[in-house]
Amino acid sequence: GFHDISLYFFLGPDQWHKNYPIAKGRHQSPIEINNKEVHYDRSLLPWFASYDPGAAKTILNNGKTCRIVFDDSFDRSVLRGGPLPGVYRLRQLHFHWGSSDDHGSEHVVNGVRYAGELHLLHWNPKYSNYLDAVRRTDGIAVLAIFLQVGKTPKPEMKRILEEINAIKTKGKEAPFPNFDPSILFPKSHDYWTYHGSFTTPPCEECITWIILREPIIVSSDQMAKLRSLSKNAENEPDLPLVDNWRPTQPRYFRMVSASFL
Ligand SMILES: NS(=O)(=O)c1ccc(C(=O)NCc2cccc(O)c2)cc1
Ligand SMILES: [Zn+2]
């Protein structure tokens, strides 16, 4: 059925609303972030990630992205501060990328599309579980980090990309122990924040987005490695897993706040 999430990229993003009406809502993601419309909010606190490397479990190809999942059965790896009212539990991280280095990110900053975007997804433990949290406006927090292609790639990305060969096709999973994703963070913690949604079905409007201003540098070869993933299962014709980003959505009456001047 259409709840089989693999169908929805078959149905382009402009069709999603037929099964998920909220896809045409007033708080959808991603959006364009333009300096002219951003509001500097000096009351915004710094954010902090306290991740336990032991919480990392596996890396998988779900046919739509490369995802690393973490043990979120207690407050083991958490994000707090920034615009958040309390601690949020790290559940998974995944990537979005294009078919070439000149596009691939979901959010667009002053007209700039980056080669990719890393999402670290956290949920609010005041709700009983993840599925309950996705039905709440303060249920989810996603820390988003842009991937920019450059000459001096971040060595910390290497380990993830070395694992890609083990998860080439949809459904493949490999152990991914002892990993603290905060090693991927850029120097600056400056961020924009706004209220939005999942960028894929069910497009629930449950996300506090925290988008880092400073991208992390990856190499063109590393982006090519992500593009070597396939969206098909092992025994099916090869379909490259590329362009798994949603186009920007109308901002409507939302304020994008900046933690920096
Ligand atoms: N790109 S994103 O960070 O907005 C994003 C993160 C997670 C998910 C996700 O978990 N999708 C599966 C899902 C979510 C909520 C309820 C469901 O039944 C399934 C989708 C998009
Ligand atoms: Zn994402």
Fold and architecture overview:
- Helix content is 7%, strand content 29%.
- The chain has three helices and 15 strands.
- The radius of gyration is 17 Å and the shape is globular.
- The structure holds N-(3-hydroxybenzyl)-4-sulfamoylbenzamide and zinc ion.
Computed Rg: 17 Å
Q: Care to count the β-strands?
A: 15
Please describe the biggest sheet, giving its number of strands, its sense, and whether it closes into a barrel: 13 strands, mixed
Bound compounds, each kind once, are: N-(3-hydroxybenzyl)-4-sulfamoylbenzamide, zinc ion
Topology:
Elements: E1 32-33, E2 38-40, E3 47-50, E4 56-61, E5 66-70, E6 78-81, E7 88-97, E8 108-109, E9 116-123, H1 130-133, E10 140-149, H2 158-162, E11 173-175, E12 191-196, E13 207-212, E14 216-218, H3 220-227, E15 256-258
Parallel strand pairs: 1-8, 2-15, 10-13, 10-14
Antiparallel strand pairs: 3-6, 4-5, 4-11, 5-7, 6-7, 7-9, 9-10, 12-13, 12-15
Bound molecules: N-(3-hydroxybenzyl)-4-sulfamoylbenzamide and zinc ion (ZN).
Residues 94, 96, 119, 199 line the site of zinc ion (ZN).
